[in-house]
């Protein structure tokens, strides 16, 4: 059986959990949480990182930091995970869904422009498959209209964007805030887990407070205040050290993991290129301004029925690809308060995009089988 | 050095984490999450249990399930952890703080009655130190005024309440909802972690949806709907299987842990009883309707200054007791929108209550040293 995903232990995960227990502290913000945060801050030049229990929680922290109030509008791609929208809906925002590019699931800046009103407060670009949205265009729109940009970088660890002046920056370091995921399907995993990146130092202190249940406990432990108490809204957004210890062991092996994933990605590309050249399928596009973090390999089928046939065909060989999001503008929750609108490219990816098995322990032999079966499927089409 | 708290590994914690990874699933709601939930449902007759990433998150789920809207009033003891209030404040509730009993930090039902208005929607009894609030009185008030009761049972695992008709029920099974914690300071630990108990089956389905980011994913996996999507508000409240695996190993040893903690509690009682008899300190009160889960051993000093002297005296012997909450009605956040009010018993516990070191691996020898030093402190008073 070749599953879509498979979690893995690569190094000292269990030993570090034991170490954390022995250190006398496994609640949040212990030694391993600090090691992980420091790792990210140094490697990707993130000004401040706070680990969270999930990417969803990081997005919720961003929503509180943006001071979302009922009536504020937040622009989100329709082709995304529900949390990109939910985190802002929880604070009372009106979600404004916009379309992807025709040939790339990322949000189209031209579509963003069309949907800005005097109530718009935040743009949420989602770096689909870890491939950068056009951040220069998006940041310019945000500057023109005085908006926050919250990067949904759930899939975008170790991925970069190059500006037109040649400056290259890690995804997550460009908007005001960014949210990453360490869900078991991501490149670096902790089962469930995430982090918030804060790129503007004027939000550092409040972010710490919100994450510590609305208390100034972090400042207290640094000796900046002489007692701590309830000063703001907040929640318990910080993960157990058991999670951070597991995560840190993965981070120590980031380069190994990434090298292996790039190989897997390139093998898929080589093995399926002929099908794309013959227009049976469409392959992922990596724009010139983006890098490839090998988070995901997807194909876009010609239509919904052909995708369904392909899924069934592969399942007969015990290969388990999976489709992805359903256009959120068509969800039951959105349609309670909104009229149906047409967002065609998002619908196209909803119907036709298919993600292939992709995980650290996927063997070359397994991958050749997947590639061979897909080619066989299209032989008589 | 005798710290206030010390986390511990008691059995198969690491082996189960490894098993979870090998099973192919470490995101939420895997095998170990289900095992933990089933354990609690069977042992304590909880109708439905959902593990969460923290007790705070379980309280937030309860607030969404109670449909809290701006202007709704929620009655909370002033002497409690910030999350008991914050979870409802996040949904826009007005928090109404009320006082504890004079000789017991639990909420006083007579004080609850005085603060009910036409806007009251929820009462949040907090079972301080795992000792039951007067749930019969509180449930009667709730029934009379058609209110929700959300038990903050963070500290109350394995603790019971006996009704006047002799019926004995586990704490957490009495209100509409209850929230428990597995923070490293609790009897059963996962570093950070929690669970929501749902006692009314009319909320089962919505609770699952809210916990799964507002999607009906759980129903989908049971085959009840043929696709899943965004149907409600929600968040990512479910913990990683790494957490659940660790927790399940602890649960397998619940009886051993509880037996040891009861011994520790009783040794403190014996060793400090004479000081209480001579009115130097006050000891915990276990009302007749309550049981003792040995979560915490605290003493109440005669005044703030004496408590400070005692803390300093014990620290000289490398013993680290800690005080607890600060009256939330005096917090900066509450005073932004509210006038200062007088809640005297809460202030008394804020100033005078002191928690003694208490953890599974605390040795008898260490404990005798603590008891001896406290007695020495009072010798010349």
From TrEMBL, chains A, B:
GO process annotations (BP): polysaccharide biosynthetic process
Keyword tags: Pyridoxal phosphate
UniProt-listed CDD domains: AHBA_syn
Keyword Hydrolase: no
SUPFAM superfamilies documented for this protein: PLP-dependent transferases (SSF53383)
GO terms of molecular function: dTDP-4-amino-4,6-dideoxygalactose transaminase activity; pyridoxal phosphate binding
Catalytic residues of the enzyme: 186
Annotated positions of the N6-(pyridoxal phosphate)lysine modification: 186
PANTHER family to which the protein is assigned, alphabetical: DTDP-4-AMINO-4,6-DIDEOXYGALACTOSE TRANSAMINASE, TRANSAMINASE
Family statement: Belongs to the DegT/DnrJ/EryC1 family.
Name of this chain's protein: dTDP-4-amino-4,6-dideoxygalactose transaminase
Species of the source: Algoriella xinjiangensis
